[in-house]
Amino acid sequence: MTTTLLPRRKVNQPGLEWVEDVFSIEPCWTEEPSIETIARLTRDNLKLSEAESVTVKAFAEGAFNKLFSIDCTKGRSIFRVTLPVAPVVKTSSEVATLAFIREKTDIPVPHVIAHDADLSNELGFEWMLMERVDACPLHEVWHGMSWMKKGLLVKQMAEHVAQLFNIELSGIGSLGPADESLANADGQSTHPVGEIVQPAFFKGDNITLDIARGPFRSAHEYLTARLQILEHFASKLDQEDEDDLEHYSDIQAVLSSLRTIIPRLFPDNSSSAAEPTILCNRDMSTSNILVNPQGDLISIVDWECVATLPPYFAVQLPQFLKGPSRTTPPAFTSDTASEVHKTELELYETTCLRKFFLEEMARICPAWVRVFEREKVRADVLVAMDKCENDMTVKWVRAWLDAVVEGREPRVSLTDACRNPLGAA
Asked: Which comes out higher in pLDDT, residue 84 or 177?
């Protein structure tokens, strides 16, 4: 097995262990957050007296977080504890992003009551105390929502996507805490773009790689760092294992193609001003869109790992509208209650709603649609990098890149191939 030649840095990550399984590597907790400490921190930050009760209960768990429900005399809230996958910057950036969205848009996002990104605090983990809204994830009510309600929700999401598109930022990275000294003409504080917080940069031992992490002035700089991460991944494959050897060969071909097309599609303009960017949330899913029982939008949660990217990378469909296409409704038969029929109907509805979303974006933000339609090749370069570590999708990436390098029009965009695997061959 070869080893990476990239230099390393030391990163303190107490409570975190990365565990590999057959298909991926997952973060695991090596110690549990203290319920007593969570209660004490809640009491202190809500300014509750010792006589007032605070009830802490496990609420939910995500890839990097544990959520606890808080009930006290001041109402209900959520206490979120985060694994130190990207110490300090992950929590700081998410808090800054939420503040930015609340200041600049009318997108409904959680209010952060208090937070601490310093691992030396008494809990030993980064944490956020947030308001809790009375709502449920969209996926819990989606099937029971009327077609009109679904259309209204898609219309709202289009308006929110357009708002983010129309706020021009500068440089590639993640937002940092507001800097009062950089206030704009209206007296509003500015959130500078800083180190990028993306799984590719911190997953597994990637966090220890001593590479550029932003802010990047251009896509060329950003993609160069991503290439280094891919080279590191390839170096860890066991070339004495038949499957790993095939994967290694595929990635080497992909890397060669990327080194050819990146200078062509993303010139090195390091001497120029930082590239214009917009805030990009890739995870507007049915788990993160919160609604009331009637399907009305209440809040959009989970703004971790959100980055500022050039429009050609950032302009994309909301996650809940992605998926395979079906242009005809399933036939009504005696088996309409079956899971197969429900799945086919959902694919058809999503296809129709996706079309409606694009029509709405063309009406309210034509510039967004122009980028979406004209920048498919550049957008797919980033998709190619995201899909290389899977030994099946890397073959789609390789075939797509072969066409681009040769100047041929790919038979199908890489985004569509990954969205609809049956059409990828």
From this structure: 84
CATH of the domain at 20: 3.30.200.20
How far is 211 from 8, CA to CA, in rounded Å? 8
Q: Say which residue the tokens 């050039």 belong to.
A: 310
Query: Which range marks the domain in which residue 335 is found?
Result: 1-10+135-425
Whether 266 and 392 share a structural domain: yes
Q: Give the pLDDT confidence of 273-321 residue by residue, as tens digits.
A: 899 999 999 999 999 999 999 999 999 999 999 999 999 999 999 999 9
Quick one: average pLDDT of 206-229? 97
pLDDT value of residue 298 = 97
Tell me how far apart the alpha carbons of residues 111 and 279 are, in angstroms, rounded to a whole number: 19
Q: Cis omega before residue 137 (within 30°)?
A: no
Question: What residue type is 135 in one-letter code?
Answer: A
**Residues 90 and 141 occupy one common structural domain:** no
Claim to verify: residue 292 and residue 147 sit in the same structural domain: yes
Whole-Å CA distances, 276 to 6, 93, 109, 114, 261? 30, 19, 25, 31, 21
pLDDT, position 423: 45
Structure tokens at 62: 């995500």
Q: Among 94, 119, 134, give the residue marking a domain's end.
A: 134
CA distance 195 to 273: 18
Same domain, 98 and 156: no
